[in-house]
Amino acid sequence: MNGEPPAQPREPNWPPSPEALREGVRAGIVGALNEEERRASALVRRLAAAGAAGIAASVALTLLFAGRTDHATHLAICGAVWAGLLVECFAFALLRVRTPRIPLGQAAALGLVGLGLASIVALFCPDPHTWHWWNSTTLGSVTLTMGGDLGSALCFGLCSALFLGFGATLVVTWRGGRLGRPGPSAMVLTLLLTPAVILQASDASLAVMALWGAGTAVGAHLGFGAGLLLASALRRAT
């Protein structure tokens, strides 16, 4: 009646007793420890999956791209390099690692998709050596006639990596991923394809191998760049 607000009823358990405070603190600590344990378990599982997938994929890729090569040194080196690269890429992709400027997990995922597309192409290629098959095609025979083995290898590396980078970009975009700059993804794909280039060009000269690798690097950048442009255009159109 004097204009003051009515007094609010006090809760029966307020203020809490020291025993209740201790119990609340203990429950909070236990909950934080359990959450940390769950995160650690998930991290260990993903790292184990990355290691298993990387080793298994390296063995399969070495057998797939070896063709008819009998260079034991090439096989051993490429298998070891692939194992290391694939374990790292699977770990980055599964853990979604990123820095403030470079999305390493996304680049690794794009590189793995591109390598997967390359494996499918090699699996269905009628010749165990994809470069030999390329030289039997119309475009390949033209580049072989005009530029010799070096020009053919450079053009094959460029065209194949362009297709793989472009295809990987479309696959990831179709899955709903938002992509960044093409440089990191192109670098990862080039690294992952390098052992395949060495195995496939094991019976050719070092110059052919080097130009094939150079064409792969340029083609990967062009492929991812073209894929990003198309994805951006489609996103704006919708």
For the structure shown, list the relevant keywords.
238 residues; mainly alpha
Residue-averaged pLDDT: 80
By helix and strand content, what is the structural category? Answer: mainly alpha
The amount of helix comes to over 70%
Low-confidence stretches: none
Structure summary:
The protein is an all-alpha fold and 238 residues long. It has helices at residues 18-65, 72-95, 104-124, 130-136, 138-174, 182-200, 206-237.
Question: Can you describe what's shown?
Answer:
By secondary structure, this protein is mainly alpha-helical. It has one domain. It has seven helices and no strands. The model has no long low-confidence stretch (mean pLDDT 80).
Q: How is the topology of this model organized?
A:
Blueprint lengths: L17 H48 L6 H24 L8 H21 L5 H7 L1 H37 L7 H19 L5 H32 L1
Helix pairs in contact: 1-2, 2-3, 2-6, 3-5, 3-6, 4-5, 5-7, 6-7
